[in-house]
Structure formats: C-alpha cells, structure tokens
Amino acid sequence: MTTPETTHESAHEAAHGNGRPAAAVVNIAEKLAGFTEQWAPHRIARVNDYDVKIAKIQGGFIWHTHEDTDELFLVVSGTLTIRLRAGDVVLNPGEIYVVPRGVEHCPQSDGEAAILMFELAGTVNTGGEVSDRTREPVDA
C-alpha cells in the first residue's frame, strides 16, 4: 500500500539516484512566517537558472524594468497591483501575472501581501534602478 509518506520517501530516494542532490520540500507558509521585513526577497528554491523567491510587501515599490528577463508574480495572500504604463493589473491569491522583459512596472499593495516571484538568477529586484529598495535575495 502506498501512503503519502512512502511516496515522499520514494521521491526522495529517486532524486538521489540521478547524481543530483535531492530537492527539499518547501513549505511556503513556514518560510513566510520566518521573516517580517517588507520588500526583502527570500530565495526558497532554484530551478535550473531561475530563482524562486518570496517576499512580503506593503505600499508602493519603484518603477523599474528587467531588460533581460521576464518576471512571474504569484500572489500567496493579500492583493497585488502591478502598475504598468498601459494600465494596472490586479492579482488576488492564487493568481499569476508575467511581466515581460523590458516592460516598466511598479508593484504595490495597499495592505500586506505575500508574493512568490520566479525570475532569472541574479536579477536585481529594482532592475536597472538603484534605490533604498535594492536588495540581494537571502536564502530563506
């Protein structure tokens, strides 16, 4: 009989067999509970050359672009507005939006929101702009 525990163990054992380290199960809620700072990206996983990051946000960010990469936003909790020159995109929990490379955008949230971002490793959170909001991601 297969149980969730044996399935998890089998996946863990299979990951060791391909010469790569086993991936760890990441609980997003637990990782979010581990910090309080706003607009501070925390890396929770790596997929090939991409980072999976989480952040807590409230208020407005800065207008910026990422010239070399798209940026995916997934709302975990709260509401995220991605301001674009062409009009705002409003995201609720469980919704995603991809900002295409080179598109100027400004994330904001009236209340606290928790977000997950998927972007090319090394992407600076403020794009080509440097401000007091510029942060290197830390491992969560």
Produce the secondary structure layout.
Elements: H1 4-16, H2 28-33, E1 42-47, E2 50-60, E3 71-77, E4 80-84, E5 89-91, E6 96-99, E7 105-120, E8 138-139
Parallel strand pairs: 1-8
Antiparallel strand pairs: 1-2, 2-7, 3-6, 3-7, 4-5, 4-7
Distinctive features:
single chain, 140 residues, mainly beta, 14% helix, 39% strand, globular
Characterise this structure.
With 140 residues, the protein is mainly beta. It is built from two helices and eight strands. Strands 1, 2, 3, 4, 5, 6, 7 and 8 form an eight-stranded mixed β-sheet that branches. Strand 4 (80-84) and strand 5 form a beta hairpin. The chain is globular and about 40 Å long. 19% of the residues are buried.
Short précis:
This protein has helices spanning 4-16, 28-33; strands spanning 42-47, 50-60, 71-77, 80-84, 89-91, 96-99, 105-120, 138-139. It has two helices and eight strands.
Report on the biggest sheet. 8 strands, mixed
Percentage of residues in strands: 35-45%
Radius of gyration: 17 Å
With helices defined by DSSP (H or I, 4 residues minimum), what is the helix count? 2
**Which stretches are poorly predicted, pLDDT < 50 over at least 5 residues?**
6-18
Distance between the termini: 35 Å
What is the mean pLDDT? 88
Structural class: mainly beta
Helix content: 10-25%
Number-wise, the strands total 8
